[in-house]
C-alpha cells in the first residue's frame, strides 16, 4: 500500500512566522506531528510519502503514486482540506481524513466526498480503520470515543520529514487538560483527565530525532505540560541527565498554565533541562471575565506576580489574550495593553473570540440563538466573529486593532523586550552555578544544525543592518543592545533573538488591518477608531 500523507495549507497567521522563516531560510514553522504519528500506527511495510503544503507543492506525480490519501486538519485548515478532498476524488483516490476539524465537524468533510472519516485519536481509531480495509470496506465513519493510553502511542515517523524545511520539531508527552475553560476545545477533543507518555518514551523519541540529525528547537506540544506537576517532574528527572549526556542538543518550548509562576522549584527544573519559553493562556487581566469563562487557575494567584516570577527565573513567555468575551466592558483592549506594558512581555498573541465547535461556549451560544456561523477559522486573523457578542462587534474590532497597533509599535516592542531580559536572572554560568546553556540556546535559536560562527554573525549583521541602521528606532536599538551587554550579558543573544522575532508580529499587524479593512470597507475607517483604543 502506498500512502500519501497531506498536511493542508494554513492561512497566514501569527503562527506562520513568515519573516523568521525567510530570515532562517526555512519553509515552515513546525511539521505535522499528527500525520507522522498516524504513519507510525500503520504497517511498517507500507510505503509513505509526506507532502506538507506549508513546505512544498502537491504534484500530479504525488497523486498518481498514491493508492490511498490520508489527511489531518485543524479548523483553520478547513478550506484547504475540503478542496483537497474534492481534488482527490476527482482523481479517483481513496480519501481518509481525520484530526480536530473532521472530529468536531464531520458533516463538511463527508459532504466534500471523503471515503473514510476518522473521529477520535489515532491510537484507538487506526486499528478499526485497518480492520475495515482488510474486510474490503470502501468507506464509512470510523468513530472511536476511547481515550487511549499514550503508552500505546508509537514513535512518530520523523524519518519522513525533511528537517531543513522546519524551524522547530514537535513531540508530545500528554493529551488532555485538567481545567475546563468555557471557550477551549481541548476537553471536548482529548478529555479533562490527562494521559501521559512515560519518561522512557520521551527519551526514545528524542534519541530518534537526535540520531536523525536534529539539533535545533523542540516544541513539546502538550496542552498543559504541567497538568500534572508530579508527572512533569518525573519527565524532567529523566530529560535533564539525557540532555547533559548528549551535549545539550535541543532547547525546548512548551505550553503551561499560569500557575507555573507560583512554583519556583518547577521553573528551575525546566530551565535546568534547557526549556527557554512557555506559552501561557492569560486571556484577560479581568478576574470577573476569567471567572465567567471558568479559567479559575488564572485567578488563584495574582497574574502579574506569576508572570514576573516566570520571567525573573529564566523563562521567556508567549502570552495569549482574547477580546470579545461576554460581559466584557469597553476598554478591554486598553486593559490588555496596560497589563502587557506593566509586565514587559514582548511576544503577545491577540485573539478575537470565536466559538469553537462543541465547547461549552458553543453549546451555550447555540442554546441562546447567538451563533451566526457553523465554522470558525480566524481567532488571530481578525475574521468576522461567529456569534453575536454582548457589545457591538465594531467596538471589539476597534479595540483589537488598537491593541495590535499599540503592542507592536516597533519602538514599544523593543522597549518591552529590553525590560524583560534585564529582569531575567543571569544564566547559571554567570551566577557560578553550573554549565552555561545560553550559548547552545543561542545557536539553536539561530536555526543552525551545528554552531557556525560565520552563519550566526551573518544573521546578527543582517538584523542589525535592518534594526540598527535603516530603521527609525536605530538609536534605541543600539542603546539597548549595549545596555544589555553591560547589565545582563549572559542574556544578550537571547534578547537579540526575541527582538528579531518581533518582525513577524509587526508585519502581521498589517495583514490583520488589511483583512479587517476589506471586510468592513463600508464602515467608518478602522484606523480612525483604533487609533484611540490603547492610548
List the helices and strands and how they pair.
Blueprint (H helix, E strand, L loop, with lengths): L1 E6 L10 H7 L8 H9 L5 E6 L7 H6 L2 E5 L5 H13 L3 E5 L1 H5 L1 H7 L3 E4 L2 H13 L5 E4 L24 E4 L2 E2 L10 H5 L4 E2 L2 H13 L5 E4 L8 H17 L5 E6 L7 H9 L2 E9 L3 H6 L10 H10 L3 E8 L8 H12 L3 E6 L7 H8 L25 H15 L2 H14 L4 H4 L6 H8 L7 H18 L3 H14 L4 H28 L6 H5 L5
- In the predicted model, the low-confidence regions spanning at least 5 consecutive residues are 434-451, 525-533
Tally of strands: 14
Report the principal-axis shape: globular
How many discrete structural domains? 2
Helix content: 40-55%
Number of helices: 23
> What is the alpha-carbon Rg in Å?
23 Å
What about the largest sheet? Answer: 6 strands, parallel
**Distance, first to last CA:** 61 Å
Report the sheet-strand fraction: 5-15%
Kindly report the average pLDDT value. Answer: 90
**What is the level 1 CATH name of the largest domain?**
Alpha Beta
CATH topology of the largest domain: the name is TIM Barrel
Cofactor: [4Fe-4S] cluster
Domain Radical SAM core: 163-384
InterPro entries: BchE-like, Cobalamin-bd, DUF4070, Elp3/MiaA/NifB-like_rSAM, HpnP-like, Methyltransferase_Class_B, rSAM, rSAM_horseshoe
Protein name: B12-binding domain-containing radical SAM protein
List keywords for this structure.
535 residues, alpha/beta, Rossmann fold, TIM Barrel, six-stranded parallel beta sheet, 46% helix, 13% strand, disordered C terminus, S-adenosyl-L-methionine, catalytic activity, metal ion binding
